[in-house]
Amino acid sequence: MRVIGIDPGLRNLGWGIIEAEGSRLRHIGNGVCHSDPGGTLAARLLELHSQLTEVIRQYRPNMAAVEQTFVNKDAVATLKLGSARGIALLVPAQAGLQVGEYAPNAVKKAVVGVGKAAKEQVDHMVRMQLPGVQIAGPDAADALAIAICHAFHGQSAQRMALARGAR
User: Fold this and answer.
1) Which member of 19, 36, 47, 67 is catalytic?
2) CA separation for the pair 53, 94 (Å, rounded)
3) Which pLDDT value is given to residue 160?
4) 7 is catalytic
């Protein structure tokens, strides 16, 4: 399975693509979609939409995973992040992909083993699981972690389905 992980952000939307065959993971690509901070919200969302659409067209993943948004004290920032998250959900859906959603602590637990892991720990474990990877930045590292989390959850679901069928 080829999975795109997406770390939503209005200024920087990270993406990372891996292939998973059983327990083997392979890095395919990663990067960051950027929007012009001086532009209108609509123009910025259109920039992200166009860039992410091109990533999906180029790499052709067959599954997607997006990090869930946490609510912070700044309501305006939360709403803007929610708009970027809407793009992160919409683009894969337009491509016909199933989209999984994961809380930040679930991603950290899947990749590091601890739900409250620091960004540096997540980055380190992504590099351990994808040897030789060149990561485009922290947002791309988070996106790769989201893809890894989705691959692990998919493997668990397959094992459960097989176990149910064996009864």
Assistant:
1) 67
2) 9
3) 45
4) yes
Residue 141 pLDDT: 97
- 139 tagged catalytic: yes
User: CB neighbours of 153 closer than 8 A, spacing ≥ 6?
Assistant: 100, 102, 110
pLDDT in tens, 64-89: 999 997 767 788 888 888 999 999 99
Residue 146 in 3-state DSSP? helix
Is residue 63 helix, strand or coil? strand
Question: Annotated catalytic residue: which of 36, 54, 101, 139?
Answer: 139
Q: Choosing from 7, 47, 123, 142, which is the catalytic residue?
A: 7
Nearest to 144 by CA among 121, 165, 123, 163: 123
Residue with tokens 């540096």: 120
Separation of alpha carbons 97 and 3, rounded Å: 10
**36 tagged catalytic:** no
CA distance 72 to 95: 31
